[in-house]
Amino acid sequence: MLPQSTLSSALVAAIMITLPANAAPQLMPKRSAVELSLPAQLRLADTAVDRYQLLPKDEDFIFDFNKAEIPFANRKTFPALTGYGTSMSVSALPACSMSFLHLHPRATELFALTSGHVVTDMVPEGNVTDSNGKQRVITTELYAGMMTLFPAGSFHTQVNPDCVPANFSAALTAEDFGISMVADQTFSLPDDVVAATFGQSIAGEDIDRVRDAIPGATLIRVEECLKKCNIQKRQV
Ligand SMILES: *[C@@H]1O[C@H](CO)[C@@H](O)[C@H](O)[C@H]1NC(C)=O
Ligand SMILES: *[C@@H]1O[C@H](CO)[C@@H](O)[C@H](O)[C@H]1NC(C)=O
After folding, report:
1. What is the DSSP letter of 136?
2. How many CB atoms neighbour CB 157 within 10 A?
3. Rg of the chain's alpha carbons, rounded to an integer?
4. pLDDT digits (tens, 9 = 90+) for 54-63
5. Any atom of ligand 2 within 6 Å of the Cβ of 143
6. Is the pTM of this model over 0.70?
7. How far is it, in rounded angstroms, from Cα 29 to Cα 26?
8. Which CDD domains does the annotation name (predicted)?
């Protein structure tokens, strides 16, 4: 058994060692509250009323799609929408272009056309079949004033087959909707997994060939349409 004095000095030493660590969290909130981003502060606000103090200017409630670097109003680019579970995109699909096959992991998208013409294809979740028992693919043809929806997680793509841009507004049911590129991400898997996934119909160098051929871009140009419209192919 340790003598009493040794025990108490050990205790003192233990307190000495733990004290700075205990003291640190008391200082942390003050320092880190300032370092937190505005969306983070909004998320931590004690009440919805308190949140308004973090957005004192009326301009805090405006997002200008005309000036925005990226045409997405989400929690990061438009902090005022933090906590409301929505986000928005207002943009144009250029003439003769197609958005690469993608999905939003956390949001259903309402896609409304305000001008032009767009054809959409959407693959719902597994087990949604057509009358032949095959995976159902839902195709829509939209003109100004028409809308479709892409449920969260559904693969989808939009094609503008015309010679003029198609303007659209898209509302999403999450502040941070996220985007996954179906082909890109599938081919990021190891070769043997890709080969097995495609029933060994593709192997070895062919996998790399396909991998390299996948455009990294979110938008691709539709060749036939470019010819029809006499538009030069350029990077979009
Ligand atoms: C989905 O389809 C598979 C294969 O046809 C079947 O075994 C499964 O029961 C289906 N699941 C549901 C939820 O319908
Ligand atoms: C499409 O949007 C752009 C940018 O906001 C605008 O200048 C243009 O007039 C719109 N086109 C049509 C046909 O509404």
Report:
1. P
2. 17
3. 26
4. 999 999 999 9
5. no
6. yes
7. 7
8. cupin_OxOx (cd02241)
